[in-house]
Write a structure and sequence with these properties.
The chain is mainly alpha-helical. It folds into 2 domains: 11-176, Ribonuclease III domain (Ribonuclease iii, N-terminal Endonuclease Domain, Chain A), CATH 1.10.1520.10; 182-248, 2-Layer Sandwich (Double Stranded RNA Binding Domain), CATH 3.30.160.20. It contains 13 helices and 3 strands, in the order H-H-H-H-H-H-H-H-H-H-H-H-E-E-E-H. Strands 1-2-3 form a 3-stranded antiparallel β-sheet. The N and C termini lie far apart (42 Å). 29% of the residues are buried.
C-alpha cells in the first residue's frame, strides 16, 4: 500500500483491510502505525515526519507496537492455557516448567513460519506501508504482532484476544514444540555423546540495517559441519543446527 500524494492513507484500503481482519478501528491511526515499515520513503526523514504529522502517528515505524503486541500475545497464550490439563501433562512428561512450555508456545505462534499462512489469508502484503524490501514476507510476523497491539490499544484486550483466538492455531502449537529448538536438541545430543559442544561463528553479514542477512558456521570439535542463514543471528544459528541434525538423521 502506498500513501496518497497528500500523504494520507486511502480510507478505502483501510476499510477493506478492516473487513478482512474482522476488526473496525475507532481510530485508524493505530492501524496505520501497525502497517508502517521504516523503509517507506526510502529513509527520507523530512517526508516521513510529514507523513507522521498528517496521520497523527507517534513513531517512525511499527516497532514499538510490535514489542507491545508480543507482550499482549504472551498474556493471551497464558490465559488460554490456564485451565488446560494437557499442557500440565506435557510439562510433567518433559520435566519442564509450565512457564517454559508457554514460552515455547508463544515462540511458535509468533514465528514467521507459523504466521505466513495467516498473512496470506488476510492479504497482508497488499496493505503494508513500505518502500523497497528484498523479501517483504520476512516482516509478516513483526507486522502481525504490531497489529495485535494496535487492536489492543484501540479496541481493548477482549478484541485483541478475539483476533488471536480467531486467527492463530493456539491448540495446535503445543504439538509443534519438539521441533522448536534445534540448537538445544543438538547441545543435548552432544552432551549425551560426551563430545564438544557446538560452536557458532559469524561468517558473513550483508545488507542494510533494516534488512540484514547473516551467515553462521556451525563447528563441532573445530570442524565446520553446516552453514545457516537468517535475518537474525539466532535464526541463522538455528538454521545451521537444524541442517546438521538432518544430516545426522536426528530430526525425529
Amino acid at each position: 500500500m502506498k500513501p496518497n500524494n497528500d500523504l494520507t492513507v486511502s480510507p478505502e484500503d483501510l476499510y477493506e483491510f478492516q473487513n478482512i481482519i474482522g476488526v473496525q478501528f475507532n481510530d485508524t491511526k493505530y492501524l496505520i502505525q501497525a502497517l508502517l515499515h521504516s523503509s517507506l520513503f526510502s529513509g527520507d526523514k523530512t517526508k516521513l515526519d510529514a507523513f507522521k504529522k498528517v496521520n497523527d502517528l507517534e513513531s517512525d515505524n511499527y516497532e514499538k507496537l510490535e514489542y507491545l503486541g508480543d507482550s499482549v500475545l504472551g498474556l493471551i497464550v497464558a490465559e488460554y492455557f490456564y485451565h488446560d490439563e494437557e499442557i500440565e501433562e506435557y510439562a510433567r512428561a518433559q520435566k519442564r516448567t509450565i512457564e517454559g512450555v508457554l514460552t515455547d508456545i508463544k515462540k511458535i505462534l509468533a514465528s514467521n513460519e507459523s504466521l505466513k499462512p495467516l498473512a496470506e489469508d488476510i492479504k497482508l502484503e497488499k496493505y503494508i506501508l513500505y518502500g523497497v524490501l528484498e523479501n517483504i514476507s520476512d516482516i509478516f510476523d513483526d507486522v502481525i504482532e504490531a497489529l495485535i497491539a494496535a487492536i489492543h490499544l484501540d479496541q481493548g484486550y477482549i478484541e485483541a484476544n478475539n483476533f488471536v483466538c480467531n486467527h492463530f492455531d493456539l491448540r495446535g502449537a503445543l504439538g509443534k514444540i519438539d521441533g522448536l529448538n534445534p540448537k538445544g536438541k543438538l547441545s543435548e545430543i552432544c552432551d549425551k555423546n560426551g563430545g564438544d559442544f557446538p560452536e557458532y561463528r559469524l561468517l558473513d553479514e550483508q545488507g542494510p540495517d533494516h534488512k540484514k542477512m547473516f551467515t553462521i558456521g556451525l563447528y563441532i570439535c573445530g570442524e565446520q559441519v553446516s552453514i545457516g542463514i537468517g535475518n537474525k543471528i539466532k535464526d541463522a544459528e538455528a538454521d545451521a543446527a537444524e541442517k546438521y541434525l538432518k544430516k545426522m538423521g536426528s530430526t525425529n
